[in-house]
Each structure stands twice: as C-alpha cells, then as structure tokens.
Amino acid sequence: MDEKSQIHALNRTQLVLRLRPGVPHGQTHDYKRNGTTSLFAALNSATGELVGKCCPRHRSVEFKRFLAMIDKPVPRELEVHLVLDNYGTHKTAMIYNWLVRRPGHHPHFTPTNSSRINLVEP
C-alpha cells in the first residue's frame, strides 16, 4: 500500500522557456496550485491489480475506509500483508483496533527515512 498526501494540479506561473540552439529546455521554478488531493493505493503484487481512491483529506478515517474497501473482496482464509510507511495515519488507535479484529492482516512498516520501491506512482 502506498499513499501520496498531496498530489498537486500544477500550472507554471509563466510559459515554458523557448528552445534555442545550445540552450536546454527550461521552465520557471514557481507554480500555481490548483488544489490537492490524497491518493490511497494498494497493489496486489501477485496479479498486478491496482486499487486506488482519492480523498480530499489524509486522516485515519479516510485510511480506514480505504482498508475496508480493499478488504471486502478478500476471502477470510487468505493472509494479507500490508507494507506501510511510518506515516502517523497508519498508527492510530482506530487503525490498530481495525487490524486487531482481522488476525489475517499483517502490517509491515518500512524503516523511517528509508527509500522504498514505489510501484504505485501518480
């Protein structure tokens, strides 16, 4: 599972700089935000199936709804391994209690400040 807390709809404040011989393509450093959203995504590494949901906020409530959505089609006899980063949303009492009621779900947290392979990218 992965999530991106801010996916920006961006527009540069100025047009892209024109290409000239010997001058690389350039653009301005600043941009105008046209809103943000949070993407929660889960990848079934065995099948390559991707499930995603965009939410206007990034709280435990939205994360729990996403967990319930991806949990629904999973047969109870299967073991589910959730690879999560150390974002605070994943470690609240609400999420802990949800996981305790599902003994077949196993959360695995990546080390803080570690790089991980992002198979799900916007």
Quick summary:
The protein has 122 residues and is of the alpha+beta class. It has a single domain, classed as Nucleotidyltransferase, domain 5. The protein contains two helices and five strands; from the N terminus they run βββαβαβ.
Describe it for me?
The protein is an alpha+beta fold. It has one domain: Nucleotidyltransferase, domain 5 (2-Layer Sandwich). Helices cover 16% and strands 33% of the residues. It contains two helices and five strands; from the N terminus they run E-E-E-H-E-H-E. It has helices at residues 60-71, 93-100, and strands at 2-12, 31-43, 50-55, 80-84, 105-109. The longest helix is centred in the middle third of the chain and has 12 residues, at 60-71. The model has no long low-confidence stretch (mean pLDDT 77).
